[in-house]
Amino acid sequence: MTDDQRLHSHSPFVHKTETFYLALSPCANEFPLEGLVAEHISPLLLTYYPPLRGVILKYSNARLSETPYEQGSGESGNGVVLSKAVDEYAVTFVYLTVDLVVFAPTKGSWLEGFVNLQNESLLGLVCYNYFNAAIERHRLPKDWRWVEDGSQGSTRVGKGSQGYWVDGNGQKMDGRVVFRVKDFEAAPGSESGAGSLNTLGTLLSVAEEKKLDEAERQRSVGVDRRK
């Protein structure tokens, strides 16, 4: 299977239709749709949203309703929609449904990135001009090697040295890399709840990755026993 076939086998970009039950501020009563989108949806763009397990990239087709949206219900969204007032609260409540594009990689899926950082410990990548990914040294192919600048192909590794990785054919790794997702971590953001997504990748085969995981578990068990 080619790299392009791997990428198309499972796209990390997911289209979702989601409904939110939101509070409508009194200042937005005259323009409720625009007010809800500006207050609740726009701040989520390019941030990790835990309920969707991904980063929201785009929204469209926002519409209001008095009940949760149901696929195939045939609601046109052109009728009068009433929001719900509760006791003495100044705000009222209404359902907002939007179509979303979410970046939601999963373990075992394939991504592409371009090299933007190299050191002896890892290969750093930028995916789709925004997302960061890293492939640790022990998850690079066994025939790759680290070359120090000025060493003319020497495999000697020096502490704090500058250099680059070369593949099994001796080609410098400084362009596109297609890799499999090993794991990912959502990093917390500001008080608004925004966050980013950091991806850990691997270039090992499934069998090699399984063997490495087992070795790491054995080392962890050995450390715990010595304690």
UniProtKB/TrEMBL annotation:
In which domain of life is the source organism classified? Answer: Eukaryota
Q: What is its main location?
A: nucleus
Q: Does this UniProt record's set of keywords contain Membrane?
A: no
Gene3D superfamilies per the UniProt record, alphabetical: 2.40.50.1060, RNA polymerase Rpb7-like, N-terminal domain
Question: Could you tell me where this protein is found in the cell?
Answer: Nucleus, Nucleolus
Query: What family name appears in the similarity comment?
Result: Belongs to the eukaryotic RPA43 RNA polymerase subunit family.
Functionally, this protein is described as follows: DNA-dependent RNA polymerase which catalyzes the transcription of DNA into RNA using the four ribonucleoside triphosphates as substrates.
What is the protein named? DNA-directed RNA polymerase subunit
Species for this entry: Friedmanniomyces simplex
